[in-house]
Amino acid sequence: MLINNSRKDETLDRLTNGIAQLTSSEKWTTWLRVQARFHRYSFSNALLVALQCPAATHVTGFHTWRRLGRTVRRGESALWILAPVTRRLVSDDDTEQNTRVVTAFRAVPVFDIPQTTGQDLPEICARLSGDDPVGAYARLVQVASDINFAVQDHVFEDETNGDCSHQSRRLRVSTRLQPAHRVKTLCHELAHALLHTDRTDRALAELEAESVAFIVSCELRIQSDAWSFGYFASWSGGGEPAIAAIKAAGTRIQRTADHILSALYLEEGDSDEQPVGDADA
């Protein structure tokens, strides 16, 4: 069974309207303000953090945590990164501005959010609660099997909900999620399996996969607005870029959603339709 084009268009319209409303809200402004506190570390410092704490997600210094209303727990061991030491280079030529040059590096302590306590950070994504109302998860596992991907339950060390490995032909879904979110996540990872064998643009890949998951979840009577709107916005950086990208990728998104839904209904045995071809074709 293929969902009709008008219904798909209505679903994508609801998605883009939701993103636009979120990214014009005070909640979005507050979230951006807090995110600005977390520095984008250099490759070397990111590697240092990963070696000391592979599951680290939100890392910053002691005083920045205090400004965010959180304190480092007593007895926590710091993660150590390198910060540049600079000095002012004074020009002999008055026409040139003074500049600062790096003269050395020093070790500085930072801490990940689980090492702190205090006010909750603002969130724009809320994990879904509730059941799998039509029992879709087991059928989605079979859809994955039909394209030679195995689905595995997994306990991730960080906040990851799922992942897709084309090399291992494997999709993993977090066991910590409630049934409704597990369905949405498996739809998202199936979209990656179908669409993104060679994709290098991570932001676009995430936008396409979540768009597919949003459409399929709606058909499965799971409303993923609380998660999907914020997920799109966090990857795109704002409403207008996300909306433009969704429109540009609309054909790929809709064909992939059709692929998954067609296979689902064939598994259920109530349709004579054949699944569409590979969405990358």
Describe the protein:
This protein has about 280 residues and is an alpha+beta fold. The longest helix is centred in the last third of the chain and has 19 residues. A three-stranded antiparallel beta sheet has the order 1-4-3. It has a three-stranded mixed beta sheet with strand order 6-8-7, with helices on one face. Strands 2-5 form a two-stranded antiparallel ribbon. It contains ten helices and eight strands. The protein folds into two domains: about 170 residues, no CATH class; about 60 residues, no CATH class. Helix 1 packs across helix 8. The two termini are about 20 Å apart. A hairpin with a 4-residue loop joins strand 7 and strand 8.
Features:
281 residues; alpha+beta; three-stranded antiparallel sheet; 47% helix; 17% strand; elongated; disordered C terminus
Topology:
Elements: H1 5-22, H2 26-35, H3 43-52, E1 59-60, H4 62-67, E2 70-72, E3 79-89, E4 99-112, E5 116-118, H5 136-146, E6 150-154, E7 162-165, E8 170-174, H6 179-195, H7 202-219, H8 225-236, H9 239-248, H10 250-268
Helix pairs in contact: 1-7, 1-8, 1-9, 5-6, 5-10, 6-7, 6-10, 7-8, 7-10
C-alpha end-to-end distance: 20 Å
Number of helices: 10
**What is the structural class?**
alpha+beta
- Main sheet: strands, sense, barrel: 3 strands, antiparallel
Q: Beta-strand level of the residues, as a percent range?
A: 15-25%
Shape: elongated
Helicity level, as a percent range? 40-55%
Rounded to the nearest angstrom, the radius of gyration is 23 Å
Order of helices and strands: HHHEHEEEEHEEEHHHHH
Low-confidence stretches: 270-281
Q: What's the overall average pLDDT, rounded?
A: 84
Strand order within the widest sheet? 1-4-3
